[in-house]
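lol ok so funny story. i was supposed to be doing the assay writeup but got distracted and ended up predicting the structure for this chain instead. priorities right. anyway since i did it might as well share w the group, maybe its usefull for someone
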Amino acid sequence: MDNFKDIRAYRVGWLLTICDFLIAFPILWIWSLRTTKGIRLDYLGDRKQIEQDIKHGAFFMTNHRDIVLDSAWLSLLLRCKYFIRPFIGIGNNLFAYKWIEILVRFNRCFVVKRGAGAHAQLENAKQLSAYIRSLREEGKSIWLAQREGRAKDSNDLTQPSVLHMLTLGEEDFYENVKALNICPVSITYEFDPCDYLKAAEMQLKRDNPHWRKSKRDDVKSMHTGIRGEKGHVVYRLTPSINPEIDAMLAEHPEYRNQPMHDQLQHVCDIIDRHIHRGYELFERGTEFDAYIESRLALIDIPNKDEQFLREKLYEMYKFPEINFQKSLKFKDESLEK
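and the output, tada:
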């Protein structure tokens, strides 16, 4: 009996590899040339150590900017550099049409079920957690965003609920996290093509707390993210967090006996420091003000609050710099080599 039939990625072996190099990857490279000024794979810390960390499979946990391209371009870079193609978690809220689900599952994507009742959410989380553990036991690499959905204001913080889902059913939380071999990855876009859509969503949510995105909104975000200009794009790999977990527990053995929400937060903090330290910070000259005004002009919503929207647009480009500066206050030898 296949316990993961409704969520697992479809495996087609050699056919997938052929499709990668003849169809998927050429399309991604062509699209990168059309919509970016270059995509770079970089490293934070000892590159040899990072490569050793991912040699037998890693759990790539990243911040989240674009619905489609974050994982697609990382997969492309890892495939070309290390012949690694991670399995990718994608929310079923993005399956506006059945053919989208079929297509992505044939491209090593597994389904993250969302939008169910409390009991169903727990059962879905248990199923997903077991599936992910089965992939890691086979030495497979995995990509998952650090939170459910994108951080619209670019304040990238790992959601404890994501880590909790990954460790359901296991007794020793820290050992289970280490078994995943989490290697955080920072993703930086010089310009976010969906910035004006995110700002609009923030006002709509402010004006109506019950407002929810429709499937049509998700499709528009996917379309805009794929086709929009992004400037320079940088993916920065960081080392496995396992040595930091060991060092933390050696210094604070009492952490093993803390309530679960505290244990979760300790690991989230480690992941966040890796991601924040890995940002690529871009110079923003006086022409950036004109850019913000051009994005503001694209927003078409009822009762448009230009002052609020302008603040949110600036905010989403400022938060990475703020978090980067905060991360420098923590000494982390693995990232300073």
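Strands lie at 39-43, 59-62, 87-91, 109-112, 142-145, 182-189, 233-237. The chain has one domain: 43-336.
back to the writeup now i swear
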